[in-house]
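Notebook entry, structure prediction.
Reason for the run: the old model in the group folder had no record of what sequence produced it. Starting over properly, with the input documented here first.
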Amino acid sequence: MIKNYTDANPKTVLKEVFGYDDFRFLQEDIIKNVLNKKDTLAIMPTGGGKSICYQIPALIFDGITIVVSPLISLMQDQVDSLLADGVSAVFLNSSLSWDSYLTSINAIRKGEIKIVYVSPEGLNSQRIKDLFFFFCIKVSCVTIDEAHCVSEWGHD
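New structure, fully documented this time:
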């Protein structure tokens, strides 16, 4: 069962879920921007607390948050950390067995998941498109967690 933080303020979620008393530099401003459903670009150093900037809104929004992340190991670390904090999160990628993949898909369809990590190519797959569009999954936020997910290399 997902704890409902829909009416919570971000600082309450920060304390209750993540155990921190105060936000780091600019986190609160970024979170407020996201909660106001404004397109937001946040560039922060490694270890600067970027993830909290979308994880807290994900818990406050009533739908799910899709996080586009490029590396399986990063997805696994994020999901493990969230699960340890009591947040319902999954990743969908090629490292999963078919049974694990189906278990995650079914949990998403039942509304048991708040944060879904997927690779850029996974997000573009028909299977993922079908999940989010044909099963009426309410997506409240889409986050790109690593700028190189949207970069394109070449002469053009």
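Summary: Residues 43 and 147 are 9 Å apart (CA to CA).
The old model has been moved to the deprecated folder.
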